[in-house]
From TrEMBL:
This is KipI family sensor histidine kinase inhibitor. Residues 2-203 form the Carboxyltransferase domain. InterPro entries: CT_C_D, Cyclophilin-like_dom_sf, PxpB. It comes from Pseudomonas duriflava. Gene3D superfamilies: 3.30.1360.40, Cyclophilin-like (2.40.100.10). GO terms for molecular function: ATP binding; hydrolase activity.
Length: 229
């Protein structure tokens, strides 16, 4: 059941499902496009999540009741559409050098060979469910159930930028060096956040991602530097 609730003084939180679904990020991205057209310059920002969409709006243009009245018809039309109607999802193929500090421990914990971990992680196509935690940090799901592990018992003080990691049922790439408790499988030379670019993040909710296993020479040729060099 869809819920619409005030979220602070200048935002509405739309809860669009109780649990994540494969097509839902793309559907939410389509709803975001529809709301952007409907609200025009009264819209400040849209923040999609796995099952939610946060709307920041200009309170100088709309009161709470007025913004709800503008939003409701858009949501109703969206809700009546087929689940197949979603924003066209871009596919990003991201090279990864699988040489992370947790690769062997993940293999052991999952009762797999290292080669099997790499194969299971790279063979699957993921959806970007949300961007959060840090600028450009993409939450990607769902991970193969054979790789599902809890977060590290003791988070690292520093995880290097470009680290490709897993935790629970998700995988992600750290855009910047930061603390983190995910299991690091490898490294990517991709730049996931550039404040000077438009858009600053090349990934968006609803996009598709595939990881391509590459060797160290290819990784470094693309500008990558191994963490802990």
């Amino acid at each position: 059941m869809i819920r619409i609730e005030p979220f602070g003084a200048e935002a509405l939180m739309l809860t669009l499902a109780d649990t994540p679904k494969e097509r839902l990020p793309g559907r939410i991205a389509q709803l975001a496009d529809n709301l952007s057209q409907a609200l025009g310059d009264a819209l400040i920002d849209l923040v999609p999540g796995w099952t939610t969409l946060l709307i920041h709006y200009d309170v100088m243009q709309y009161s709470l009741s007025e913004i709800q009245a503008r939003v409701m018809p858009v949501i109703e039309d969206w809700h009546q559409e087929s689940d197949d109607l979603e924003r066209v999802a871009r596919l990003h193929e991201i090279p990864v050098w699988y040489a992370g500090p947790d690769l062997e421990s993940v293999a052991k914990a999952c009762s797999l060979a290292v080669e099997q971990v790499i194969d299971l992680h790279s063979r699957r196509e993921y959806r970007v469910g949300a961007i959060g935690f840090a600028p450009g940090f993409p939450y990607l799901g769902e991970l193969d159930e054979r790789l599902v592990l809890p977060r590290l018992a003791s988070p690292r003080v520093r995880v290097e930028a470009g680290s490709v990691a897993i935790a629970e049922r998700q995988t992600a790439i750290y855009p910047q060096a930061s603390p983190g408790g995910w299991h690091v499988l490898g490294f990517s030379a991709w730049r996931l956040f550039d404040p000077q670019a438009e858009p600053p993040c090349p990934l968006a909710a609803g996009d598709r991602v595939r990881f391509i296993a590459v060797d160290e020479a290819t990784y470094r040729a693309e500008g990558g530097q191994a963490a802990w060099d």
